[in-house]
């Protein structure tokens, strides 16, 4: 796990965009798969990626986008459905064709329909060859996607109830707290772990506790974000405020400064 702490949210967005672009280049696939998170955290990162598209450094016309999650029961085209959010925040500004955006289907009218939709999403991910780079935010309660505390570490895409904490955190996007759906279809933690590279961004003091639990607490269903510790290629990009709870900060900063000069260039000390 690589932990990069930068002065401001703008620096976080810029640096995370570089990590995402490098991951897509490393994937070297004709149709790379980019995993997309919603929420406020990745918005700056998406804006940086949009700048890279405008300048010709990045081209997502043949890429595929896979959302982490979707609310259950919102009317079609509801502006806060994650499909609509991603069409607005990602497809348009980044030139990802709308028909190449995939979002779990939360429109099922009964449990069987929702379960079938979740399983279909798993098959879609498999058929696409998996996600190359997964962008992640983290909830203030440590959730990843909509995997609330208590989610199985090996879980797959499924229907879940949202915690009251998450519903009240997300009420700002709706007219009132009661308008926030109670359920979602979310990739599981096992699904997220299948992505080849994870890039998590977090800014602000409100995330400090969740970030510290995810990065330095035990690997535990009580903090879904702690699955990052299990992944072989995870980069976490934080601003100073989100990093305040970290105990190993010195080590992260030292690691981020890179490898030493080649030994051959050093004068012999013996
Ligand atoms: C949302 C999303 C998550 C997101 C998180 C944090 O509910 N389902 O994918 O990471 O909550 O949101 P924000 O970045 O707005 O704090």
Chain-wise SSE layout:
Layout: E1 2-6, H1 9-27, E2 33-36, H2 43-54, E3 64-67, E4 69-71, H3 82-94, E5 101-102, H4 111-127, E6 133-136, E7 158-161, H5 164-169, E8 183-186, H6 189-193, E9 197-202, H7 208-216, E10 234-239, H8 249-256
Parallel strand pairs: 1-10, 2-3, 2-6, 3-5, 6-9, 9-10
Antiparallel strand pairs: 4-8, 7-8
Helix pairs in contact: 1-2, 2-3
Give a brief outline of the structure.
The protein has 270 residues and is α/β, with parallel strands linked by helices. The protein has one domain: Rossmann fold, CATH 3.40.50.
Question: What does this protein structure show overall?
Answer:
- By secondary structure, the chain is α/β, with parallel strands linked by helices.
- The protein has a single domain (2-256), classed as Rossmann fold, CATH 3.40.50.1360.
- Helix content is 33%, strand content 16%.
- The protein contains eight helices and ten strands.
- It has helices at residues 9-27, 43-54, 82-94, 111-127, 164-169, 189-193, 208-216, 249-256; strands spanning 2-6, 33-36, 64-67, 69-71, 101-102, 133-136, 158-161, 183-186, 197-202, 234-239.
- The strands form two sheets. It has a seven-stranded parallel beta sheet. Strands 4-8-7 form a three-stranded antiparallel beta sheet, covered by helices on one side.
- Helix 2 (43-54) links the parallel strand 2 and strand 3.
- Helix 1 crosses helix 2 (43-54) and helix 2 runs parallel beside helix 3.
- The mean pLDDT is 96.
């Amino acid at each position: 796990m690589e932990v990069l702490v930068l002065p401001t949210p703008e620096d976080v967005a810029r640096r995370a965009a570089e990590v995402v672009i490098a991951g897509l280049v490393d994937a070297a696939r004709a149709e790379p798969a980019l995993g997309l998170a919603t929420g406020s955290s990745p918005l700056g990162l998406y804006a940086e990626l949009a700048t890279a598209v405008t300048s010709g450094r990045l081209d997502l016309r043949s890429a595929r986008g896979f959302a982490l999650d979707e609310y259950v029961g919102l009317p079609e085209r509801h502006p806060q459905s994650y499909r609509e959010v991603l069409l607005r925040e990602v497809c348009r500004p980044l030139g990802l064709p709308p028909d190449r955006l995939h979002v779990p289907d939360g429109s099922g009218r009964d449990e069987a329909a929702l379960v079938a939709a979740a399983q279909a999403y798993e098959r879609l991910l498999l058929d696409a060859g998996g996600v190359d780079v997964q962008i992640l935010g983290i909830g203030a309660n440590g959730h990843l996607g909509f995997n609330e505390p208590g989610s199985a570490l090996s879980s797959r895409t499924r229907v879940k109830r949202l915690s009251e904490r998450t519903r009240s955190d997300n009420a700002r996007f709706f007219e009132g707290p009661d308008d926030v759906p109670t359920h979602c279809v979310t990739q599981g933690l096992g699904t997220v772990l299948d992505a080849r590279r994870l890039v998590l961004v977090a800014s602000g003091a409100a995330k400090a506790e969740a970030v510290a639990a995810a990065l330095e607490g035990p690997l535990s269903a009580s903090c879904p974000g702690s699955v990052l510790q299990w992944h072989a290629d995870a980069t976490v990009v934080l601003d100073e405020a989100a990093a305040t709870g970290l105990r190993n900060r010195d080590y992260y900063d030292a690691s981020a400064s890179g490898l030493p000069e080649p030994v051959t260039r050093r004068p012999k000390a013996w």
